[in-house]
Specification:
Blueprint: H1 2-23, E1 33-36, H2 46-55, E2 60-64, H3 71-80, E3 84-89, H4 92-97, H5 99-108, E4 113-116, H6 128-147, E5 151-155, E6 163-164, E7 167-168, H7 169-177, E8 181-186, H8 187-192, H9 197-203, E9 208-213, E10 215-216, E11 228-229, H10 238-248, E12 252-255, H11 263-277
Parallel strand pairs: 1-2, 1-12, 2-3, 3-4, 4-5, 5-8, 8-9, 9-12
Antiparallel strand pairs: 6-7, 10-11
Helix pairs in contact: 6-7, 9-10
């Protein structure tokens, strides 16, 4: 009897000792929420930034290029805080000129999605033909990265949403790109372009890798923060947006703020809002 009791006590102690390790792992009910690391660029060291993500209860990030470090160091830090890299913002010039190096780095950190984050003014089309030409190029790059086991997405601002001969530049780009190119729709910039985010989401149904979940402050407010606000704290109609995003097949909701006064608070507030209001959970295949 004593031997059995000792074995039972030992097993209980071992399980209790393992609890901290299990506590950091996402559960089956985890929502598909991530953080764009650009939001945290002024929030201390890379490790301090990832700790903020972890402390907000978020287990996924979208990186900014190579984050100023090696793939080995970045992977080590991600693992330390039980965080998965779901995507990375990679400038178009890097995709054009250093694609193999970009793919190698991202494979090493466990990421499989590359995102064109911003077009320099010199790369921005000025007419319908230009948008179609850029779309065709991105379609070719998307096919290349697909052959390497990855996918390519495009992130918008407001200039892509200007109308060009009856259609937005973004629509023309995707029409020319073909099915391999995904979109990462920035909802605050969609609204700033004068469009309805919910209606715009519907136009990209079936090819929405993610949305950038951020808000616009009321006119005249938060001017020191570029007029942006944390998710759910501004003027966007999330009661309409979130059902539209789910219907359009959005896979990830990435919390972002371009000029946060308090990055940690913005992430905590945004993550809490999305956890409360999202009805979808992270697919088992995407969990750690």
């Amino acid at each position: 009897m004593k031997s059995r009791a000792c074995r039972t006590t030992t097993l209980v102690l071992l399980l209790l000792a393992a609890l901290p390790a299990f506590a950091g792992e996402p559960t089956a009910a985890q929502k598909p929420i991530a953080v764009q690391m650009y939001t945290l660029r002024n929030a201390g060291t890379l490790e301090q930034q990832l700790k903020i993500v972890h402390d907000a209860g978020v287990h996924a990030v979208e990186t900014v290029g190579m984050q100023g470090t090696s793939a080995a160091e970045l992977k080590q830090l991600l693992d330390r805080y039980s965080i998965k890299a779901i995507s990375s913002h990679v400038p178009l010039a890097e995709l054009r000129n250093n694609l193999d190096a970009v793919v190698t780095f991202n494979r090493a950190i466990g990421n499989t999605t590359l995102v064109v984050p911003y077009l320099d003014p010199k790369d921005r089309p000025t007419d319908a033909t230009g948008w179609a030409t850029l779309g065709q190029e991105l379609g070719r790059i998307a096919q290349q990265v697909r052959g390497k086991g990855m996918r390519l997405a495009y992130h918008n601002h407001d200039f892509e949403l200007a109308e060009v001969q009856g259609r937005t530049g973004l629509e023309r780009l995707f029409a020319a790109a073909g099915p391999d190119l995904q979109t990462e729709l920035d909802l605050a910039w969609v609204a700033r372009a004068g469009l309805d985010p919910a209606l715009t989401l519907a136009k990209f149904r079936g090819r929405l890798f993610a949305v950038h979940a951020k808000d616009n402050a009321a006119k005249g407010q938060a001017e020191d923060e570029g007029g942006f606000a944390a998710v759910g704290q501004g003027v966007l109609d999330w009661n309409a947006i979130l059902p539209a995003a789910a219907a359009a097949g959005v896979q990830w909701y990435i919390v972002e703020h371009d000029q946060p006064r308090d990055p940690a608070k913005v992430i905590q507030t945004g993550a809490e809002y999305l956890r409360e209001h999202l009805t979808v959970s992270l697919p088992a295949s995407a969990q750690r």
